[in-house]
UniProtKB/TrEMBL annotation:
Signal peptide: none annotated. Belongs to the FAD-dependent oxidoreductase family. The lineage of its organism: Eukaryota, Metazoa, Chordata, Craniata, Vertebrata. One of its GO terms (cellular component) is mitochondrion. InterPro entries: FAD-oxidoreductase/Apoptosis, FAD/NAD-bd_sf, FAD/NAD-binding_dom, FAD/NAD-linked_Rdtase_dimer_sf, Reductase_C, Rieske_2Fe-2S, Rieske_2Fe-2S_sf. GO terms for biological process: execution phase of apoptosis. This is Apoptosis-inducing factor 3. The keyword Mitochondrion applies. It is found in: Mitochondrion.
Length: 602
């Protein structure tokens, strides 16, 4: 067991100018110490000392100030995108106060003015990320960066915004982070925090620890050869190269002393000795452990499954290789999963033919319901994708070792130069079977609301866990969404630091096909009815998923920001009844009136 030395050290904390609050400065102008406890021992960390300056923008040439509107131009609860000449900002009025932040979501650049403002935060209309309007801080995901916050002043009933030109151009801000005590003091085979898995959950966990002032060693290990990357793009933007989808550059990890061990697989965990054993025999001691290994795709079990050019999309190289092989060739996709459908959509214009094989009679039936599934299926058929439903693959035939044909159980033989398999996945937790960590019958790691396992000091996050979902009366669920993995990582990090923070986020996901997106919020597992507003044939609709009398999830296409609005309602702990969908609720969504959100009852 590695003991962290209880010594007083001074560390550097990178603090954006806009984040230096009055509370951080003591009367004598020196930075006040932050106190953090490790294993019950108080340790003092000092913020980097800076002189007090009346002007937070050190370079006057980098500052722009502009009058953007009259104070009466905005009512409470309204947002406006304003131009400062060298960039735009989002001006917000809530409870009589004006706020100004970046106008684009740092995730994929969505215009936040089209999002949802509610109770001190704005939610992105595309993917549901939430930002505090007072600080710009990110409060829900996806994405890693916060919004820049700009100064607002009122003079002679005019609203002025003062902003850094650089911040206006970048439209993003990385929260202040601690750095590590000199790594030369550490034994290479021991770490304070070990994170197994370098996806969204692992990365957000590491970043959150640094944001909270944690300055001991953090090691992430991954079977992948790359630094953490934007995994959803593997099926949505298949020809993206690794460097184009990396979530953070190499310099970021060096700057904040987050070590990443690539192509390293953990084979076993000894929770009593607090040791992780790697496949190559290397052992690493840890104090706190996060398991965020995600899942492993299922493979075909039919005859000929070993032939060349049959892929599970797991890495950027897989996706790139499929695009190259599929161009002007015949593609067969097995499984109408999110991955299978997104790959089919991406390849439809590039391949000679795209055929999709699925056991169900309608794509997405269990997730979106039959009517929405049929509408999506029709869109695919209009884009030259051929469906073979209610059947499965019986054989893969080869010629000179490479795939030539896919034989279906129905007897149909499909020409195929490349095959992509998307028939689901299983949690990557096999290495934990003898560990004593609680694993359920399906292989998922069981955690509580603080992402803690049954073993003290061991946390788990992401696709490999089941956790209590507040939205569904704390039912233990598995939610393999990109947004949820981010939040899991943050909650785990906060509780490694003994914050006692419980997860309460609303699941939010999206899928992109043929330039159109379906957005989805909530958890519709076990829904018994679907109430649809809009026109399915025109692919402009909202689908409310109900269980008994309660709306448990919503999906939409071409109806932004309705899913983000519903997500805010659910996040507020309010209930939408089935009877409300046709009347008050839906009408208020269409008009943009959110006043009913703060009302009493359900």
């Amino acid at each position: 067991f590695w003991v962290i030395p209880a010594v007083e050290v001074k560390i550097e904390v990178v603090i954006p100018e806009k984040e230096r609050s009055k509370e951080e400065i003591s009367p004598n102008g020196k930075a006040s110490p932050l106190i953090y406890k490790v294993n019950g021992t108080a340790r003092h960390y000092h913020l980097e000392e800076h002189p007090i300056a009346s002007n937070p923008y050190h370079n006057p040439k980098d500052v722009v100030e502009a009058s953007v509107c009259h104070v009466k131009d905005l009512e409470n609860g309204q947002m406006r995108e304003v131009d400062l000449g060298c960039g735009k900002a989002l001006l917000i009025k809530e409870s009589g106060e004006f706020h100004a932040v970046g106008h684009k979501c740092p995730h994929y650049g969505a215009p936040l003015v089209k999002g949802v403002l509610s109770k001190g935060r704005v939610r992105c209309p595309w993917h549901g990320a939430c930002f505090n309007i007072g600080t710009g801080d990110i409060e829900d995901f996806p994405g890693l960066d916060s919004l820049p916050r700009f100064q607002v002043k009122i003079e002679k009933e005019k609203v002025y915004i003062r902003a850094s030109k650089q911040a206006l151009q970048t439209q993003r801000r990385t929260k202040m982070m601690a750095k590590c005590i000199s790594l030369s003091n550490y034994n290479l085979s021991s770490t304070n925090v070990l994170i197994i898995g370098a996806g969204a959950a692992g990365l957000v966990c590491a970043e959150t620890l640094r944001q909270e002032g944690f300055s001991d060693r953090i090691v992430m290990c991954t079977m992948d050869r790359h630094l953490p990357y934007d995994r959803p793009k593997l099926s949505k933007s298949m020809d993206s190269h690794p460097e184009q989808i990396t979530l953070r550059p190499k310099e970021f990890f060096c700057t904040y002393d987050i070590e990443v061990l690539t192509e390293m697989q953990v084979a076993a965990v000894d929770v009593k000795s607090k040791i992780a054993v790697f496949k190559d025999g290397f052992k690493m001691e840890y104090n706190k452990l996060l398991i965020a290994t995600g899942n492993t795709p299922k493979t075909l079990s039919c005859k000929g499954k070993e032939v060349e050019n049959v892929f599970n999309i797991r890495t950027p190289e897989d996706a790139n290789r499929v695009v190259k092989l599929a161009t002007s060739k015949n593609v067969v996709i097995v499984g109408a999963s999110f991955l299978g459908m997104e790959v089919a959509a991406y390849l439809a214009e590039r391949a000679h033919s795209v055929s999709l094989v699925e056991l169900e009679h309608v794509p997405f039936k269990k997730f979106f319901g039959e009517r929405v599934g049929r509408a999506v299926m029709k869109m695919f058929e209009n884009n030259r994708v051929k469906f073979y439903m209610q059947t499965e693959v019986s054989e893969l035939r080869e010629q000179e070792g490479k795939l030539k044909e896919v034989v279906l159980k129905s007897g149909k033989v499909l020409r195929a130069d490349v095959c992509v398999v998307g028939v689901g996945a299983v949690p990557a937790t096999g290495f934990l079977k003898q560990s004593g960590i609680n694993i359920d019958s399906k292989g998922f790691i069981v955690v509580n609301k603080m992402m803690q396992t049954n073993i003290p000091g061991v946390f788990a996050a992401g696709d490999a866990v089941t956790f209590p979902l507040a939205l569904r009366n704390n039912k233990k669920v598995n939610v393999p969404h990109w947004q949820m993995a981010h939040m899991h990582g943050r909650i785990a990090a906060l509780n490694m630091l003994a914050h006692g923070t419980e997860i309460s986020t609303v699941p939010y996901l999206w899928t992109a096909m043929f330039g159109k997106s379906i957005r989805y919020a909530g958890h519709g597992e076990g829904f018994d009815d679907v109430v649809i507003q809009g026109d399915l044939d025109e692919l402009k609709f909202v689908a409310f998923y109900t269980k008994s009398d309660e709306v448990v999830a919503v999906a939409s296409m071409n109806y932004d920001p309705i899913v983000s609005k519903v997500a805010e309602v659910l996040a507020a702990g309010r209930t939408i009844r089935k009877r409300d969908v046709d009347s008050v609720v839906f009408l208020s969504f269409r008009t943009g009136d959110m006043s009913w959100l703060t009302g009493k009852g359900s």
